[in-house]
Specification:
The protein is α+β, with helices and mostly antiparallel strands. It is built from 4 helices and 8 strands; from the N terminus they run αβααβββββββα. The strands form 2 sheets. It has a 4-stranded antiparallel beta sheet, covered by helices on one side. A 4-stranded mixed beta sheet has the order 5-7-8-6, covered by helices on one side. Helix 1 crosses helix 3 and helix 2 packs antiparallel against helix 3. It starts with a helix and ends with a helix.
Length: 193
């Protein structure tokens, strides 16, 4: 039951991001520096949405003689198109955020990891395209790529989509302006010590 509730909450948040994106209300409140990561995903997500739309039209033609099946498949296919667009919208609406009291590493509505400045031991610009799962590491790639690595002096708790908890000491993530983010994070970490 918890998994169903988590998925329902996830879907509602995705659709909420789609609405915010459509009305251009996506800037975080409370200030801070914003660092995007969605720019590289735009063409891929647009292509995926187009493929889903073609599939919707194809299935509509193939199932035209079975009205009940046609209606169900049409609804599911249309929802898939909306889901793909909402996924992209959530990445635009929820960028990484750097405030005086924390850095928030985000990815869509799946991840919102809050790291206090005093927990940051080292920050570096490091482009990686392979990410083998390892204990104590959290990789947040976009297009199989990360560009910033944060090593932590103290572990932070990452809460998964279904409520699982794991301690992480290294966080790798993608950001469009990696060098600017590394400079800002280094300044924030120095001021916290």
């Amino acid at each position: 039951m918890r998994a169903v509730l988590a998925l329902a909450r996830h879907e509602a948040r995705l659709l909420g991001c789609l609405v915010l994106w459509a009305v251009r209300r996506g800037r975080p409140r409370g200030g801070g520096q914003v660092f995007g990561y969605a720019r590289g995903q735009g063409p891929v997500m647009a292509g995926l949405a187009c493929v889903c739309l073609v599939e919707t039209l194809t299935m509509s033609v193939l199932l035209r003689h079975w009205p009940t099946v046609h209606a169900v498949v049409l609804f599911l296919d249309a929802y898939t198109v909306v889901f793909v667009i909402a996924l992209y919208a959530s990445c635009v609406i929820r960028p990484h955020l750097l405030t005086p009291d924390a850095v928030r590493i985000r990815h869509s509505v799946h991840l919102d990891l809050r790291i206090p400045p005093d927990a940051i031991a080292a920050v570096r610009h490091e482009v990686r395209t392979t990410h083998a799962p390892a204990e104590g590491e959290l990789n947040v790639p976009v297009g199989s790529r990360t560009s910033v690595t944060i090593e932590l002096a103290a572990p932070v708790t990452h809460i998964t989509l279904f409520g699982g908890r794991r301690e992480v000491r290294v966080v790798r993530f993608q950001v469009e302006e990696a060098e600017r983010m590394v400079r800002s994070l280094s300044t924030l970490a120095r001021s916290a010590t």
